[in-house]
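User: I'm curious whether this sequence folds into something compact or stays loose and floppy. Could you predict its structure so I can see for myself?
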Amino acid sequence: MLVIEDDDRIARLVSRALQDDGHGVERAARGGDGLNEALAGDFDLVVLDLMLPDMAGTQVLERLVEVRPEQRVLVLSAVPEIGTRVAVLESGAADFLGKPFAVAELLARVRARLRVPAPGAATRWLRAGPVLLDLRLRRAEVDGRHVELTFREFLLLQHVMRRAGQACSRGELLSDVWGLTFDPGSNVVDVCVRRLRQKLDRPDRIETVRNVGYRFTVD
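Assistant: Here's the prediction. I'll summarize afterward.
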């Protein structure tokens, strides 16, 4: 386990509870240090505070999930807003526990998270037609040829490939890929699709579904 928490009292409490429950624990008091340790190590779970002195815990989470999407992260924070809680869960956190907390609940949540396979652990590869995605390393191949994708391009391609043959609305793409629950009034989805079409084996691999959105075709 890795505990990223700047409050020494809470860090010691969490670490001791996890150790008493049979886990090895490392600690980091700064977001940057914790991020580096998380990326360099192999942790079953990262316990992450949101209010850190050098960088926001949300930034640590986003970077960690971007590089290691299979990493389980339990956010432990006193931030009360429901919007923040929803945002970190949508950003890839496995769970959220507010402060103050009961140690018994913390351990119960940790055990529950460990019972669930980590994202990408059971299925690393996603294939649809000639396109192969490495979900762990966020790499793409088309007919065996490596294709460079931006982060958003990868997420968009992953979404439509999982729904291959089905129409995906612009609304669900905005929500899943950009984390937006509203239409920003821009054409970000269309622009991203246009770039993707140029990188795939043929432009109609992602076809337009009139008045709906887009569909990934495998034929």
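Summary: The CA atoms of residues 12 and 210 lie 57 Å apart. The two ends are 45 Å apart (CA to CA).
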